Automatic annotation (TrEMBL), chain B:
Similarity section: Belongs to the globin family.
Superkingdom to which the source organism belongs: Eukaryota
Cellular component terms per the entry's GO annotation: blood microparticle; haptoglobin-hemoglobin complex; hemoglobin complex
Protein source organism: Myotis davidii (David's myotis)
Gene Ontology BP term (one): hydrogen peroxide catabolic process
Matches recorded under PANTHER family: HEMOGLOBIN FAMILY MEMBER, HEMOGLOBIN SUBUNIT BETA
Molecular function GO terms recorded: haptoglobin binding; heme binding; hemoglobin alpha binding; metal ion binding; organic acid binding; oxygen binding; oxygen carrier activity; peroxidase activity
Span of domain Globin: 3-147
Keywords in alphabetical order: Acetylation, Heme, Iron, Metal-binding, Oxygen transport, Transport
Protein name per its UniProtKB record: Hemoglobin subunit beta
Amino acid sequence: MSLTRAERNIIVSMWGKIAAQADAIGTETLERLFASYPQTTTYFPHFDLHPGSAHLRSHGSKVVSAVGDAVKNIDDIASALSKLGELHAYILRVDPVNFKLLAHCLLVTVASHFPADFTADAHAAWDKFLSVVSSVLTEKYR
Amino acid sequence: MVHLTADEKAAVSGLWGKVNVDEVGGEALGRLLVVYPWTQRFFTSFGDLSNAAAVMGNSKVKAHGKKVLNSFGEGLKNLDNLKGTFASLSELHCDKLHVDPENFKLLGNVLVVVLARHFGKEFTPQVQGAFQKLALGVATALAHKYH
C-alpha cells in the first residue's frame, strides 16, 4: 500500500496546523487511547497517567514529533522511521494491534480539532498514512 | 450486554440527544465507503461511488446511513439487552446480506470519528471511551447470530 500524490499533498498541507498544536494533540491522543483501550496502559506501568501529567505531555509530544518526521519524509517513510522501527521491534515490542488503536485515537483527536479540514478525503489519506507508518514500525518484528 | 457506568450512560445519552441522526448516519456510512473502499462491495446497486464527492452526495448512501444510525440508536435504549435488540438484524446480516462482522467494527470507529468532528472538545476522551464500548457492544450483538 503506498500513498498517492494527492494523499501526500493532503497530509503535508494539514501538517502545519497540527504541528502548531503538537503537544496538545499528542497528549490528547494518549488520553483517548488510555480511556478507550485501558489495556494499552500495560505498556506504561512507570508513567503517571493522570490527564495532563508531565509524562503524558512529554510522551505525546514525542509521538507527534515522530509522525512529523514521517510527514516531512513522506516519500521515504521507511528510511525516516528506521531507527524507531528497530526500537519497537527489539526493545519496546508493543503488540502490533496497538498501532491501529493509537492511529484511531490520533484521527479522532485531529477530527475534533480540525473539523472543517478533516474531509472524507482527508480522513482516508490520514488513515492510510498512519497505516503505512504502523507497517514501517512493525516491519522488523520478525 | 455492555457494561457502561452510570456516568458513561449519561455521557452517551447526553451526546446522542444532540446528534442529527439523519446527517451523521449518512456521513458515517459515506466515510466508511471512502476510507475503506472495499466496503463498497455491499453497495453495488447504489450508483456512483467513484470518488469522495460522489459518495458523500449519494442519496442512497444518505438514506441508508440514516437507517443504520437510527438502528444504532435503538441499541442505546436497550443497553441491557443488545443481543436481543439486534437478534433479527444479526440474522439478516449473516443469512441475507452476507456481511463480514469485521465491518461492524470499522463502521463503529468511523462513527466515533464523525462524532468527534461534530462535537469537538465536547467529545472528551471519557465520552469517546463510553462510545467505543457502545459501538463494540452493538458490533458484537450484530455478530451474535452468525453461524
